[in-house]
Amino acid sequence: KAGVTQTPRYLIKTRGQQVTLSCSPISGHRSVSWYQQTPGQGLQFLFEYFSETQRNKGNFPGRFSGRQFSNSRSEMNVSTLELGDSALYLCASSSGGGTGNYGYTFGSGTRLTVV
Amino acid sequence: AQKVTQAQTEISVVEKEDVTLDCVYETRDTTYYLFWYKQPPSGELVFLIRRNSFDEQNEISGRYSWNFQKSTSSFNFTITASQVVDSAVYFCALSEDGGTSYGKLTFGQGTILTVHP
Which residues is A44 bridged to in the sheet? Predict the structure, then answer.
């Protein structure tokens, strides 16, 4: 059974640009959530999607957005990149209702560097 | 609001030593879930264990064991006879139940475990 796949693995962007990251969940999982990991702030929740609807959102500016497609694949977009957006972005998929009762399986992440 | 505290920033041990990673959590919910994840240098978060708030039974799985105590809001993790391959960052995490918690894990700051040969 394939795990959670995130692409690309590494990305270098310039300040002011925008970036799109992709996450393909485990087959059959309908909940996808996104996290940002930085040395200073640790792992922080960005948002969660279930059946193409955003159900939960963390405390991030509007430059961070996402969407989910009918096949449950999800993308997150960061516009007007800032140096502080450099981070490892992780996505997690979950079966069932997407709550803790079902657990979360993480991908390997996309490491974004903003220069 | 929920909060997870891992007081140990770094732990260094010699192979075959036992090591315990501490985790203390805060939540107002009566139903919640606690997790331990391991993050090797590759970056992926590897799931180790999940416990719900109604299951205080402690467990041993191979070299891993967990001690969940609601009275002290602690969820500690022990590796017995540590090995070099156990070197990683270990995260404790909390998920509350209910609509505002969909997909959301609150993580501790992580404990860097280094096991020396």
Answer: A36
Contacts of A88 in chain B (CB under 8 A): 43
Cα A86 off chain centre by: 14
Whether the per-residue pLDDT at A1 is higher than 70: the answer is no
Reply yes or no on whether the pLDDT at A34 is more than 80. yes
Selection from B81, B66, B72 nearest residue B19 by Cα: B81
Inter-chain CB proximity A103 and B91 less than 8 Å: no
* pLDDT over 70 percentage in chain B: 98
CA distance B38 to chain A (A): 11
Report the residue of A53, A99, A102, A113 to disrupt the B interface, i.e. the one with the largest count of B CBs within 10 Å.
A99
Mean pLDDT of A25-51: 95
Q: Give the pairing of strands B111-116 and B10-14.
A: parallel
